[in-house]
TrEMBL record, chain A:
Coiled coil: none annotated. It comes from Telluria mixta. The chain crosses the membrane at residues 28-50. The keyword Repeat does not apply. InterPro entries: ARM-like, ARM-type_fold, PBS_lyase_HEAT. This is HEAT repeat domain-containing protein. It comes from the Bacteria. The keyword Transmembrane applies. Keywords: Membrane, Transmembrane, Transmembrane helix.
Automatic annotation (TrEMBL), chain B:
Belongs to the glycosyltransferase 2 family. InterPro entries: Glyco_trans_2-like (IPR001173), Nucleotide-diphossugar_trans (IPR029044). The chain crosses the membrane at residues 6-28, 346-375, 381-405. Residues 60-105, 167-394 form the Glycosyltransferase 2-like domain. This is Glycosyltransferase family 2 protein. Keywords: Glycosyltransferase, Membrane, Transferase, Transmembrane, Transmembrane helix. Gene3D superfamilies: Spore Coat Polysaccharide Biosynthesis Protein SpsA, Chain A (3.90.550.10). Pfam families: Glyco_trans_2_3, Glycos_transf_2. The keyword Transferase applies.
Length: 365, 473
């Protein structure tokens, strides 16, 4: 129980304060405090340990970079030394990081020279071992190195990694597969890309850019048999890679009535043959369809579409008005004077305002 | 006997409250550890040159500005140099009484622009919209004074892009911060909002809109806030984010899906904590609609902001924050223990209510009660010292864990001396500063109860850390 003291601090107060109390609840509180104190000391020690480890790592890295940066720089400018220094085990991760960074920043001959240095040092063997058994960080690093090296021997391991649920690791492995063999990778990857929603479209597009030609072929074969719910994603991939899809595929999507499919198809329509279908969508109930139809008509429309687009300038949705105005302003056969005349002739204030805004945006864009 | 029992009850209530409060934060700390560990494994990918696919969602950066002539040019300049595929910067001059608009006109060559302004959310009158002749992606909205929330709403109305990013006008963003804070939107289409880490810029050096040297402030008030920010962001938010229960995204740097914000009705102009209120409201509405969504905290995109360096400004800021918190929770009771409330409704909201909203009342009450009871002889010296030992010890433990997370992940302060200084602050801030802060929060709570009028408030800014800014684009 709590002991009243009558408000007077006894002489032995401090001693009492730092002695474990006998009351069970007070004792629990006391030991919580002691636990917090010990944990704080432990955290303090851990912070010091981390800082010391960081310093050691930085020193090791600085030493490794000082030794290897000149060698790799020389290789980049085509002056690879005949005899390379030996790569110490402790230097490997730092070397690989530097090498990968340089590879990612360079193109052409320099990349080949860097590959040559890595192969002569036998780094690919370490990377294969890292890929198979290393911790996650090492595996990520290894995928990048083996991808740049175009290491065929790692194909199967990379494929296994590509199917892992770890998004970052699987995308790195996929990137490496594309680097190693774009054609084989396209066959294998394209259906996977269409199927996996957890892979961000911008990442997918970034990876597939290097294999857009083979992907286009695979995608065209894949589309007819694709389940309808997967079609929008496939169309988005086609859009990202600027792949021209067969008109009948797009026509079917535009006629499907499914919002996702219609909008996905409208984004990539580039064939004048589909003009009438697009025109039919300008009055769609969904404003997003009208927006995309206006944009599409800006790409494939003819002179007769100016009136249709002008009518959209008075749409109740701002974005439809804006995209219609952009489509009009971008039509190659309308001169500035004609645009001014068009704006002057508009009786709807919203239509005139939006056209005025887009015309004002044009010189700076 | 009854009196004695009452004293005992209150004693143990206060003790248990302190233990629960800090225990809760320790659990959040554990959750943050896992996220930071995984993030650390992918660190080297961040250093690699990035290729844009063109599918990244474009972002409208909204910069509400009220009397910001000292820092606005450098802030906007830093935003114009961000690495991102497509974005625009919209500065909203909220009827500033100083030379904010003149500075902007002069620095960025503004000319009136015939904008077809789209009024999706009601705001105060727009006087004029300008566009920069030097940076086509910079526009300035000059409007009647209506507060920060009103300015953000005007920015949303004028924005072109599907993501909107609110940034304080006195802030400096790291170059890659936008690409990092938008990453969750690319990864997951259900993400509706993300927030980044805010750091204290006092003591740092900024050149040409970029932070060129990280340093610690010499001013003691700002120094205390460095550790406070570490704690608040590295586990306060990261921990909640890992269980999709984050109720706060700092107004200084947060990205939102615009359609969701408009669906929720935009920022509420009649509240001080408009940033938090919007997030809580979005949770409430999306939960009620059973719509899958995520609100994420991204620990590394760093936004640097000037912390108050004098007692009065700091006190006013904390009072406003507490009022904002109270307003945000009070306006969204529907989230608490709601049928589809999930983590936000069943854990985060009650936690905020119990420990952040009512916390100052219990904490200050607890300190006063303990001192009073001890002086009156109602509790023993041993009980009193044990209370102080636990309360202060757990506080130090939490601050130390914030420092550990920082050391594990970002090492923003690279010098040994800086680490030592921070370690000293971890100890010292618990011996007076934290209690003072609690006192200010209690005043904030009181002012909310009394319903005193809410305003932007005046932030005394020095802006000297942004002094070396070259002219011209």
């Amino acid at each position: 129980m709590i002991l009243p003291t009558g408000g007077i601090i006894p002489d032995h107060a401090l001693a009492v304060a730092f002695t474990a109390p006998t009351d069970p609840v007070l004792a629990a509180a006391y030991w919580t405090g002691i636990g917090a104190l010990l944990l704080t000391l432990l955290l303090g020690a851990q912070i010091i340990r981390l800082r010391m480890a960081l310093r050691r790592r930085e020193r090791r890295e600085a030493r490794a970079l000082a030794r290897w940066r000149p060698v790799l720089n020389a290789a980049i400018v085509g002056e690879t030394p005949d005899t390379l220094p030996s790569l110490r085990k402790s230097e490997r991760p730092h070397f690989i990081k530097l090498w990968v960074h340089l590879q990612a920043s360079l193109r052409g001959e320099a990349g080949v020279a860097l590959n040559d240095v890595a192969r002569r040092l036998g780094v690919q063997n370490d990377a294969r071992a890292m890929l198979a058994r290393g911790p996650r960080t090492e595996r990520l690093l290894a995928t990048l190195l083996l991808g740049h090296l175009g290491d065929r021997a790692s194909w199967d391991t990379l494929r296994t990694l590509a199917e892992s649920p770890d998004v970052t690791l699987s995308l790195s492995a996929l990137w490496a597969l594309v680097r190693i063999d774009p054609h084989a990778a396209a066959d294998y990857l394209t259906p996977l890309f269409v199927a996996r929603d957890d892979w961000a479209m911008s990442h997918v597009a970034g990876i597939l850019k290097e294999a857009s030609a083979p992907v286009a072929g695979v995608l065209a074969n894949l589309l007819p048999a694709l389940p309808q719910e997967r079609l929008p994603r496939a169309l988005r991939i086609a859009e990202a890679l600027r792949i021209d899809l067969p008109a009948d595929v797009l026509s079917a999507a535009l006629a499907s009535g499914d919002l996702e499919r219609v909008t996905a198809a409208l984004r990539i329509v580039a064939t004048p043959g589909l003009r009438d279908q697009v025109r039919g969508l300008l009055a769609h109930a969904d404003w997003q369809v009208r927006v995309l139809a206006a944009k599409a008509l800006g790409r494939i429309g003819d002179a007769s579409d100016v009136d249709r687009l002008t009518a959209l300038l008075a749409d109740r949705e701002w974005w439809v008005r804006y995209r219609a105005a952009q489509a009009i302003v971008e039509l190659p056969w309308l001169s500035r004077a004609q645009l001014d005349a068009l704006q002057a002739g508009l009786t709807d204030r919203f239509a005139a305002d939006i056209l005025g805004q887009v015309m004002a945006e044009r010189p700076a864009s | 006997m009854t009196h004695h029992l009452l004293i005992q009850f209150v004693t143990w209530f206060v003790l248990c409250y302190f233990i629960l409060l800090n225990g809760g934060y320790l659990v959040l700390n554990m959750l943050s550890l896992r996220t930071l560990h995984r993030k650390g494994q992918e660190e080297m990918l961040d250093d690699l040159p990035r290729a844009y696919s063109g599918l990244e969602p474009p972002v409208s950066i909204l910069v509400p500005a009220y009397n910001e002539e000292a820092t606005i040019a450098a802030s906007v300049r830093s935003m114009l140099q961000l690495t991102y595929s497509e974005y625009e910067v919209l500065v909203v001059n909220d009827g500033s009484k100083d030379g904010t608009l003149e500075v902007l006109k002069c620095e960025f060559g503004l000319l009136p622009f015939p904008e077809a302004y789209r009024r999706q959310i009601k705001t105060k009158e727009i006087r004029q919209i300008y566009r920069s002749t030097r940076f086509p992606n910079l526009r300035v909205i000059d409007k009647e004074n209506g507060g920060k929330a009103d300015s953000l709403n005007a920015g949303i109305n004028a924005s072109r892009y599907p993501l909107v990013c609110g940034v304080d006008a006195d802030s400096i963003l790291q170059r890659d911060s936008l690409e990092k804070v938008t990453e969750p939107f690319l990864r997951d289409p259900t993400v509706v909002a993300t927030g980044g880490t805010i750091r204290v810029a006092n003591g740092c050096e900024v050149t040409g809109g970029f932070l060129t040297k990280v340093g610690l402030p010499k001013n003691v008030w700002a120094l205390f806030q460095v550790v406070e920010y570490l704690r608040a962001f590295l586990f306060g938010r990261l921990g909640w984010s890992s269980v999709n229960g984050m109720l706060i995204i700092s107004g200084a740097f947060g990205v939102f899906r615009k359609d969701t914000v408009i669906m929720a009705g935009g920022y509420r102009p009649d509240t001080i904590g408009e940033d938090m209120e919007l997030i809580v409201r979005m949770h409430r509405l999306l939960r009620a609609k059973r719509q899958p969504y995520k609100v994420e905290f991204v620990p590394d995109p760093v936004c640097w902001t000037e912390a108050p360096e004098d007692y009065k400004t700091l006190k006013n800021q904390r009072i406003r924050w507490q009022r904002g918190l109270a307003e945000s929770l009070n306006a969204n009771w529907g989230l608490m223990f709601s049928r589809n409330g999930g983590v936000p409704g069943w854990l985060a909201f009650p936690f905020m209510l119990l420990f952040e909203w009512l916390g100052p009342l219990v904490e200050v009450g607890g300190y006063i009660f303990m001192v009073w009871s001890f002086l009156m002889g109602e509790i023993s010296w041993q009980a009193f010292t044990t209370f102080m030992f636990v309360a202060i010890g757990l506080g130090i433990l939490l601050s130390a864990s914030g420092l550990l997370l920082e050391e594990m992940s970002f090492h923003i302060y690279p010098r040994g001396k800086q680490l030592l200084a921070l370690a000293a602050v971890v100890l010292l801030e618990n011996l007076g500063y934290r209690q003072l802060n609690t006192m200010w929060r209690l005043i904030g709570l009181w002012r909310w109860v009394m319903q005193k009028e809410s305003t932007w408030g005046t932030m005394k800014r020095k802006g000297d850390w942004q002094a070396s800014t070259p002219k011209g684009p």
